[in-house]
Amino acid sequence: MTETILITGAGGNVGREVVLALAAPPGPATATATATVKAALLPELVTAWAPLPGVTPVAFDFLQPATFAGALAGVQRVFLLRPPALADARRHFAPFIQAARAAGVRQVVFLSLVGVDRQPFVPHYQIERLLRDSGMGWTFLRASFFMQNLNTTHRDEIRRRHELYIPAGRSRTSFIDTRDIGAVAARVLTESGHEGRAYTLTGSEALNYDQVADIFSAELGFTVRYASPSLAAFVRSQRQQGTPWGYTLIMALLYTLTRLGTASVVSPDAAQLLQRAPRTLRQYVQDYRQAWLTA
Ligand SMILES: NC(=O)c1ccc[n+]([C@@H]2O[C@H](COP(=O)([O-])OP(=O)(O)OC[C@H]3O[C@@H](n4cnc5c(N)ncnc54)[C@H](OP(=O)(O)O)[C@@H]3O)[C@@H](O)[C@H]2O)c1
């Protein structure tokens, strides 16, 4: 049976990979992906995705309930992502979760955070709770730090200053590639047996940032240094670069948790679901190397 899957955050790092994984040949034969994006992104993505089989961009905004009915029409499964700017679970996500239930959605696959079950103060914890109470089937993908943070948030410091300016001390992080998260999401959205399951998605090793810098140096052909700033110095530097307070504080919180060891857990779940080893950081740097070499 062909099912329709609604993918939220489809223009972002992970949502884009979920769409690509669902549409990629040989692709899951049972699924038709309905990708949803904010209206402002629609023209660009209609063009970009026109050749992808079964992908229909539709307008969708968590903050505009009038967009829910169109996005949810005919949908059986949803990939739910919390856009970083939306932090209030009850105000920003409960209305959509209720609408999904009313529209007959059977399963919601939610992109959550590694270790979230011990972090009741983060929005993902509260969204997981809303989903458990919703009456719909749920699957949680509790992801570790994305490798792709290094070619987005941290791209310029690597490219321009040849350094990693990250306040993680000597802690270790089990980075995961967003392409692997997309592949896992595509699988659990198109196969039965994943309802009521929480998967911890990590790479197969946890690296400290000196090791990360060494991999960058070996692959890029110039020396990349791990600066290891204090949390206070990191916050000052982000503010000087014009990063908004809210985002700066969230990063400071996440790196504080990282220092406490929460990002170092290594789980077999990704390898089991991918049926291969997750991509390594070295593979990721090789694939994205132009990001740090071009102006
Ligand atoms: N970074 C990490 O290491 C990491 C690790 C584990 C979990 N996570 C979680 O992953 C999530 C972020 O994923 P990501 O990096 O893929 O996000 P992202 O690249 O920032 O993409 C967010 C997407 O959501 C869309 N969006 C923003 N506001 C919206 C709204 N009001 N209604 C509908 N769509 C909206 C954005 O569209 P526009 O571009 O038009 O705004 C964009 O397409 C967060 O919940 C984060 O906590 C991150």
What features would you describe in this structure?
This protein is of the alpha/beta class. The protein has two domains: 3-143, NAD(P)-binding Rossmann-like Domain (Rossmann fold, 3-Layer(aba) Sandwich), CATH 3.40.50.720; 147-175 and 203-264 and 279-295, UDP-galactose 4-epimerase, domain 1, CATH 3.90.25.10. It has 13 helices and eleven strands. It has a seven-stranded parallel β-sheet, sandwiched between helices. Strands 7-11 form a two-stranded parallel ribbon. The chain has a two-stranded antiparallel sheet with strand order 8-10. Helix 1 crosses helix 7 (178-190), helix 4 runs parallel beside helix 5 (123-132) and helix 9 (231-240) runs antiparallel to helix 10 (245-259). The longest helix is centred in the C-terminal third of the chain and has 15 residues, at 245-259. It is globular. It starts with a strand and ends with a helix. The relative contact order is 0.13. The mean pLDDT is 92.
Judging by the overall fold, what is the CATH architecture of the largest domain?
3-Layer(aba) Sandwich
- By DSSP, the count of extended strands is 11
Largest sheet: 7 strands, parallel
Our estimate of the beta-strand percent is 15-25%
Q: What's the name of the CATH homologous superfamily of the largest domain?
A: NAD(P)-binding Rossmann-like Domain
Bound molecules: NADP nicotinamide-adenine-dinucleotide phosphate
Mean pLDDT score, rounded?
Answer: 92
